[in-house]
Amino acid sequence: MYDAPMVVGLRPGYVFRFELTGLPYNVRQSLYPEVELRGVLVPRPGMKYMDYPIPLFFTQADIDQALKGVLITKVIYLEDPEKALPIGFQPDFPVETPDTSEAEAKRNANENGRLMAIVRLGDRKPPIQELQTVAIPGTLLLPGERYLKAPTLPPVFSYDSVPLYDPLLGARIPKEECFLNGGDKKTILGIGPDGQLNGLNATDVSVEFTKDGKRRVTTSNTASICAPRFLIRRAEEFPNGLNTAQMIAANTGQMGSATIKERVAPMTDIAREKANEYIGRVRPSSYVGKLGASYFVGTSKPMAIAQVEGVQVLGALVEPEQLTASPSLGPLTVTKIIDPPGPKQSGDIVTITIRYANTGLKPVSELVVSDSLSGRLEYIQGSAETDRAANFTAEENEAGSVVMRWELPGELFPGQAGTIKFKVKIR
């Protein structure tokens, strides 16, 4: 017996029974919730299982309903950050969404995240024989214990806790534990014929600029915030009458099987075709030149020249600015940093820094920095600051957060850089 609240470790793939005694306003009665653990967290560096326990709580309304004979089912799932609700709440009291049945609750949980646990609460008291079938040693880590022993029996149902691994691409890391910020997702960023920015989605960062009279756009790196959040789909089943058994009516007719009028013997194999043999084998070969490639820088543009055994090959011309900046990002280098680093909890406040630098050889002008926040982030009013003069605006986006926009007049010469900082609260 332990005083609530408490934290225990459960092995996934098993069923657990708990006894709730000392209920408020019903101290002489007890309830026996059943827990199916269907999944666990996949920690990132620095994350610990016990820092993000699956919330299992019952309100006074839940207890009253269960004592009246109502079966309450709570399907707990780890929320997909891309489908996150744009609201904040305490980790110990997640949001509950009603469903009509347990099957619908599980389906909605899988569509919006990763199923973690199924909890059922009713007024039924399980017999001792039933409890013995689910009491498997090595599946429960009680407070004060450091290690979980090996289970004496295999899991009773499949569970989701081991990431898939592709032998060529590597491990497929689940996305529910962390959500991304920065970069360019979904629709690709671009400047339309009207000169307006297109493709700015939630979590994207864009930096518009003018170079050589043309309007262009680039993006930043991708930063990750690991802050798992649990939600609940809830279903209730009320007692509804009695189940009765009814005998099947007698057969009024009978039909015999049809007679086979013709029987065709299986055809024999007329011939077999043997696989063709290899007529010849070609061994792959490689040619290694005796002279390495040399690079010559001309007066206007660099030119690559490779020479092997007297054969001269001229490479494509490359602009000088591409030697110091990625061709896909252009002359601007944009970085996004989350401070402090490491795993977070809902309610934590972090500082986001966006740094832009002209790494090309020509000046750029009319910079516009836009950051469309995820629905898991809430901008703290008045926290935005820049080291250059800027016109700042903020408006709502499709994820339930805001798009922040800084217009930076003037030119940014080669080698110059700027910084934007603001604070957000993790929902």
- Largest beta-sheet characterization: 6 strands, mixed
User: Helical content, roughly?
Assistant: under 10%
Distance between the termini: 34 Å
Mean pLDDT, all residues: 82
Number of helices: 3
Structure summary, number of beta strands: 27
Unreliable stretches: 249-329
State which percent range the strand residues make up: 25-35%
Which key terms come to mind for this protein?
2 domains, 427 residues, 6% helix, single chain, Immunoglobulin-like, 3 helices, elongated, 5-stranded antiparallel beta sheet, 34% strand, 27 strands, mainly beta, 6-stranded mixed beta sheet
Structure, explained:
The strands form eight sheets. The protein has a six-stranded mixed sheet, sandwiched between helices. The chain has a five-stranded antiparallel sheet with strand order 14-13-22-26-25, with no helix packed on it. The chain folds into two domains: 9-163 and 228-237, no CATH class; 178-226 and 324-426, Immunoglobulin-like, CATH 2.60.40. By secondary structure, the chain is mostly beta strands. It is elongated. The chain is 6% helix and 34% strand. The model is unreliable at 249-329 (pLDDT under 50). The relative contact order is 0.15. It has three helices and 27 strands.
